[in-house]
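Q: Entry one of two.
A:
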Amino acid sequence: QVQYVESGGGLVQPGGSLRLSCATSGFPFSEEIMTWHRQSPGKARDWVASIFPAGRAFYSNSTRGRFTVSRDNDKNTVYLLLNSLKPEDTAVYYCQHYGSTTWGQGTSVTVSS
């Protein structure tokens, strides 16, 4: 079955960086658009970024220029590099392939001094 295992979150100071990973299984990873989403406390889950199989990437207005999504099709893994982090980036981050209804457990990012 489809599985996503997110990792790499943690506590970081404003302006800091983190690299999130999402290991996947159960679907043809190299053929699928991969997406990152996040859910801040008390808010709905929001789209963050997407990456097409060949590597073209798109970002939300709030993350463009600070976050970078990448993928390794040999490892069935998608990454999200978070730079210049702000307190409002605090959230649980999830990955998913486009059209999936399955979610992983997410990885928690807290940006605080």
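Q: Entry two of two.
A:
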Amino acid sequence: QVQLVESGGGLVQAGGSLRLSCAASGIQFSINGMNWYRQTPGNQRELVAAITGGGTTNYPDSMKGRFTISADNVKNTAYLQMNSLKPEDTGVYYCHTSRNWIPYWGQGTQVTVSS
């Protein structure tokens, strides 16, 4: 059974930083890779960052510069370091992975950035 558990969200002032974690069980990030998505109020869920099983990272152009994805394959945990946060970054952040075309999602962690 695949389980993804996010943590690390919270309330932060604009300009601050947060590091989100996603702990996985039943699946290996070193094989399947992992993605971070977010859903901000009134918007569709969007990709924030991705890391392949081999450790290659990818970011949409709009996310480059302030977000950094990483993974600890021993702990089977992925991270999202978020710096220079803005109020428009407020939303629910989800980790996602897939295996054999079956998607798996965490429950999400709320990030709130105050102005």
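A: Comment on entry two: The mean pLDDT is 96. The CA atoms of residues 4 and 106 lie 5 Å apart.
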